[in-house]
Amino acid sequence: MAKHTVVTMPGDGIGNQVLPEALRVLKAVSFDAEYVHADIGWECWINEGNALPQHTLDLLAKHKLGLFGAITSKPNKAAQEELKPELRGKGLVYYSPIVTMRQKFNLDICMRPCVGFVGNPLYYIRKKVAAGFDEPGFDEPKIDTTVFRQNTEGMYAGIEWTNPPEIVRAALNSHPKFKSFATVPGPDVAASVRIITRPAARRIVTAAFEYAKKRGFKGVTICEKPNVVRETSGMMEETAKEVAKNYPGIALWSTNIDAQLMWLNKNPEDYNVIVASNLFGDILSDAFAGLVGGLGFAASGNIGEDVAVFEPTHGSAPKYAELNPPIVNPIAMILSAAMMLDHVGESAKADRIRQAIAAVVKEGKVRTYDMMRLPGGPKAISQGAASTNQMTDAILEKLR
Ligand code: NAI
Ligand code: MG
User: Fold this and answer.
1) What's the confidence (pLDDT) of residue 292?
2) What does pTM read for this prediction?
3) 28 C-alpha to ligand 1 centroid (Å)
């Protein structure tokens, strides 16, 4: 019997193209695992009225480890129209399966590494101080940032209303600051509730510090806005200060989300570990991912106490899903699989994979269309871009 069982959920669109590539790489490093397929995504919605079938939940509950590709989601109207006829008009509501999965298994820690690979044409560069206006002379600073994003609370908890019910309005009215909104008619008022709880804050901050300790980084940055959003960002920062006391060798730095976005464009190499609430973490991780190559390179882990699911940050990219050969970059998915290896204590194998990717990128011979800054599409291959498959082949070559 294999040591691990991984629930594989390719999902929709390019999820089906990149997930098998990650499995090829896992095999090449002799990861001792067997794989069970589970359905998720749009087809499940159309045919069963549920994008995350119970069977898939059961498999995840049983095996506790998942690799996920991507799903397609569409606005409510399209969701209703595409349901198979016998399911229509039954009041079924589409919910994003990945959001549901995070909530069901309390996958509250979202880890998003944004690590630069030298030689990547999409990598951030900065002009050298001495270089004049027209002179060449660039730095390629070493970006190795991991964003720890709280994954279940905050602005994405989904507690929101347009035209809040009377009881909610009454509660809001009890706050002195609501006075200026009190005369606005209900239908013209939208409210989203940002809830932060201390235990969840403690868990995400602790995860960030543990990671910093493991990697030997000298600090963790809490990125919030406690000077304005006093209660919720305040609780995040206060909790971070508390947790930091358990890690005497690691500094706690504090930045505001707006200033942080400016600084990441000036000195991104100064930030190795950043922790933030849900919305801010989502923004930060996309911003950092943009510096190191974008969606083709952005991996993530959704980690709970019991279950963990690893996935590229990108979606199903439907416009490329039908291309043959596939052209999308499998690196984000392969890096997600490497994160899964870290999670189960197979970091040596994970490091081998990352080194193989680094070698391919540095060599610069095999590049998918995104790395060549070509428009995606059927012509990309004839313009010199590697296919999805060829990129994986190149990585496998380095693993030999
Ligand atoms: P997307 O991430 O699917 O694609 C945006 C663009 O990024 C693509 O058109 C492509 O140019 C590029 N791209 C994405 N992955 C790439 C890769 N591996 N290699 C090279 N280029 C890549 O986001 P979009 O177009 O906004 O959404 C498409 C569908 O995916 C929607 O239905 C959306 O709801 C869903 N989605 C699902 C996510 C998930 O499964 N976690 C996350 C984001 C979007
Ligand atoms: Mg996002």
Assistant:
1) 96
2) 0.95
3) 27
